[in-house]
Design brief:
This protein is of the alpha/beta class. It folds into 2 domains: about 170 residues, 3-Layer(aba) Sandwich (Rossmann fold), CATH 3.40.50.720; about 160 residues, Dihydrodipicolinate Reductase, domain 2 (2-Layer Sandwich). The chain is about 40% helix and about 25% strand. The chain is built from 12 helices and 12 strands. The protein is globular. The two termini are about 15 Å apart. It binds L-homoserine. L-homoserine binds next to helix 7.
C-alpha cells in the first residue's frame, strides 16, 4: 500500500472539506485504490499550524477548528507557522495548496507552489490565481524537479471538467468550449428569475459560501475569466492573459431584462466561451440570453456546466457542482489519485 503524506497550506473551506472526506472515505480509498492519505502538517494564516509525522487525525483537526477556531488542540501546535518553513521541515510527499485566491498576481500561492516544487514535492491546488497566471512557469519547474501539478479543482471544483477535456475529449478535436463557470452569478440569476432582488440574492450566495472574499470577482466576471484562461492554456495550449478575455459581468442586468427574457422563453446566463477561429483563440465572459433548449439554459443555482463542441462527438455537456467544501475537497482527492496511480 502507498502511504501518501500530505502537507496542507490553508485550512479554510476546502481544507476542511478535504479533511471531512478523509474522515468518511479513507477506508474505501485504502480498499479500492490501495492508498492511505496521511495529513502530516497543516498551516493556516489565521488558525495556526500543527504537525505530526505519524499523521494528524482529520476528525481532530475539524473538531479543533469547530471548538476554538484554531488548530490549538492539535499536536505541535504553533500559533503561526511560516509556509516555507513548513514545506522544508514537514515530512510529506505532496503539498496541497489551498491559500486565498489572488487574480492580480497569483501570490502568495505561486510562491508556495514554487517552493514546494523546488523541494521535490508533488503539488495539488484549487487556487485559480497561480494557475491562470503562472501555469507555464510552474509546469516547467515541476518538469525540472520530476514532480506533478494537480489543478482539477480550479475549474468547476471536483466536477472533472479539465480531466474530461484533456484526457477524454482532446482526441475528438475540441473546437469550442462554452460554460457556466461561476456559481455565485448563476445562483443570483436563478434567484432573480424567481423574483428576488440582486442584493438579496448576492447576500444569500455569500452566506452559502459560494462567493469570493470580494464578490466583485464573481459579479464582474473576473472569476469566470480566470477559469476561461485556465481552460485556454490547458485545453487549447494557448496562454491567455486575463485582460485578453473579453469580459462583462452581470451587474448591468436589471430585473426587467430578466423578466423580459423569461416572457420570451429565454434565460440570462453568464457564459464563458473559448473558440478557435482561423487559428486564433477568441475568449469571452458575458451574459447571454439562451433559449430553454440550449444545454446550459436549465443549469440553475450554484451548479456549473461546460459544453465541449468537438469534431467527432459534436456536443458533450458536463453538469455538476462548481464550488463548495466537499466538491472542491474532492478535486484534491481526484488529483492525488491520478498522480499516485501512474
Ligand atoms: N466564487 C466561485 C464561484 C467559487 O462562485 O463559482 C468557485 O471557484
Amino acid at each position: 500500500m502507498q502511504h501518501i503524506r500530505l502537507a496542507i497550506i490553508g485550512f479554510g473551506n476546502v481544507g476542511q472539506g478535504l479533511a471531512s472526506i478523509l474522515v468518511d472515505h479513507s477506508s474505501r480509498y485504502t480498499q479500492d485504490f490501495d492508498v492511505r492519505f496521511i495529513i502530516t502538517a497543516v498551516t493556516d494564516a489565521l488558525k495556526g499550524g500543527a504537525m505530526d509525522p505519524n499523521g494528524l487525525d482529520p476528525a481532530a483537526l475539524l473538531s479543533s477548528v469547530e471548538k476554538t477556531g484554531t488548530l490549538s488542540e492539535m499536536p505541535n501546535f504553533r500559533p503561526s507557522w511560516d509556509v516555507a518553513e513548513m514545506i522544508h521541515s514537514a515530512p510529506c510527499d505532496a503539498v496541497v495548496e489551498l491559500s486565498f485566491t489572488n487574480l492580480q498576481t497569483g501570490e502568495p500561492a505561486t510562491g508556495y507552489l514554487t517552493e514546494a516544487i523546488r523541494c521535490g514535492k508533488h503539488v495539488v491546488t484549487s487556487n485559480k490565481g497561480p494557475i491562470a497566471l503562472h501555469y507555464d512557469h510552474l509546469t516547467a519547474l515541476a518538469a525540472e524537479h520530476g514532480v506533478q501539478i494537480g489543478v482539477e479543482g480550479t475549474v468547476m471544483s471536483g466536477t472533472p471538467a479539465i480531466r474530461l477535456g484533456r484526457k477524454i475529449l482532446a482526441a475528438a478535436g475540441i473546437q469550442r468550449i462554452q460554460g457556466i463557470f461561476n456559481g455565485t452569478t448563476n445562483y443570483i440569476l436563478t434567484k432573480m428569475e424567481a423574483g428576488a432582488a440582486y442584493l438579496e440574492a448576492l447576500r444569500e450566495a455569500q452566506a452559502l459560501g459560494y462567493a469570493e472574499a470580494d464578490p466583485t470577482g464573481d459579479v464582474e466576471g473576473f472569476d469566470a475569466a480566470a477559469k476561461v484562461a485556465i481552460l485556454a492554456r490547458l485545453l487549447f495550449g494557448t496562454p491567455l492573459p486575463l485582460n485578453q478575455v473579453n469580459r462583462t459581468g452581470i451587474t448591468a442586468l436589471t430585473p426587467a431584462d430578466i423578466q423580459e427574457a423569461a416572457s420570451a422563453g429565454q434565460v440570462w446566463k453568464l457564459i464563458g466561451a473559448l473558440e478557435m477561429i482561423d487559428g486564433k483563440l477568441s475568449a469571452s465572459v458575458r451574459p447571454q440570453r439562451l433559449p430553454l433548449a440550449h444545454p446550459l439554459a436549465r443549469v440553475s443555482g450554484a451548479t456549473n456546466a461546460v459544453t465541449y463542441t468537438t469534431q467527432l462527438l459534436d456536443e458533450v455537456t458536463l453538469i455538476g457542482p462548481g464550488a463548495g467544501r466537499l466538491a472542491t475537497g474532492y478535486a484534491i482527492i481526484e488529483d492525488l489519485l491520478s498522480i499516485y496511480s501512474r
